Amino acid sequence: MNDPSQKSVSNQPSRREFLKRSSAVAAGASLAGSLGLARSAHAAGSDVVKIALIGCGGRGTGAAIEALSNKGGAKVKLVAMADAFRDRVDVCLKSIESRITNKELIDVPESRKFTDLNCHEGAIAADVDMVLLCGPPGFRPAQFEAAVKAGKHVFMEKPVATDGPGVRRIIAANEEAKKKGLLVAVGHHLRHEDKHREVVQRIHDGAIGKLSYLRAYFNSAGVWTRPRKPEQTEMQFQVRNWYYFTWLSGDHIVEQHVHDLDVCNWIHGGTPVEAQGAGGREVRKGKEEYG
To answer: Under a CB-based contact definition with an 8 Å cutoff, are residues 132 and 64 in contact?
Structure first.
């Protein structure tokens, strides 16, 4: 909040101030201004934050729209897009254009549309300030490493990786990001919602006494399926259906239930001494050839 006793020459924060307040413009209302990070980046006096979207599925589309519609007051501009598949780039861009009324905020010519499994390389190199990593999490460690090496600020969706080696790569790259003064945020949106923050604070203040046990549920139906097409390679089929392959998604606990487990750790103030898990369906039923 602004201090009413202080005068300001403008109600619109500069690019420097926006990046100072927010670790990731892509997070929109859920993250903007919530992490309180002090470092910022400022290049050539520009007040425009240029972003690249890597991963043009539903979450990537939403993240880009949230970034361009941010309530922090900064001018955010989408200048590059990348995905393993060209049709995802096209559908995503069309959706973004239909939701963003100020077309000046969208500048993605053919030369800044990148497709293949190394698509992130072109997007990161496209003279951007920040990258949004919203593709399958199996690719996240390599993409995060590349973004940090290039000196880019990062918003990445959860989960950050799908296995132990991937997590260790993320941790190592994050140490490099700290050394470079880069801003990094992960899409654990529950930590940034007012209702959750207030409830957890009350628990920490002792409103319900000392905690000795926590339980989290995740009840869900199935998600999308994308049938195999005759012309697809096995890799194309698996990347299209990444949710059903552990090397790409980490499976349900890592990919989805991570939100609830994170909240449990947040409430507890650390990781558990002992944990047990149970599932209601041990294998997928039906004719689909997934996982």
So the answer is: yes
**Same-domain check for residues 231 and 120:** no
Structure-token match 């425009």, residue found: 48
Residues 57-70: what's their mean pLDDT? Answer: 93
Residue 35 shares a structural domain with residue 121: yes
Look up the domain containing 249 and give its range: 213-277
207 inside domain: no
* Same domain? 37 vs 175: yes
The CATH number covering residue 167 comes to 3.40.50.720
Task: Evaluate whether 129 touches 153 at the Cβ level (below 8 Å).
Answer: yes
- What integer pLDDT is reported at residue 200 of this predicted model? 95
Count CB atoms within 10 A of the CB of residue 136. 23
127 and 246 assigned to the same domain: no
Instruction: Count Cβ atoms below 10 Å from residue 129 Cβ, excluding itself.
Output: 23
Instruction: Count other C-beta atoms under 10 Å from residue 289's C-beta.
Output: 11
Quote the number of domains for the chain: 2
pLDDT tens-digit profile of 86-127? 999 999 999 999 999 999 999 999 999 999 999 999 999 999
pTM given for the model: 0.82
Mean pLDDT of the chain: 84
Coil, strand, or helix at residue 117?
coil
Cis peptide before 4 (omega within 30 of 0): no
Beta-bridge mates of residue 186: 156
- 132's CB contacts (< 8 A; 6+ apart) are 24, 26, 51, 52, 53, 54, 55, 60, 63, 64, 67, 155, 156
Give the residue from 15, 154, 156 showing the smallest Cα distance to 76: 15
Both 157 and 21 in one domain: the answer is yes
Residue 97 shares a structural domain with residue 146: yes
Same domain, 105 and 224: no
Among the residue ranges 18-22, 36-40, 78-82, the one predicted with the least confidence is 36-40
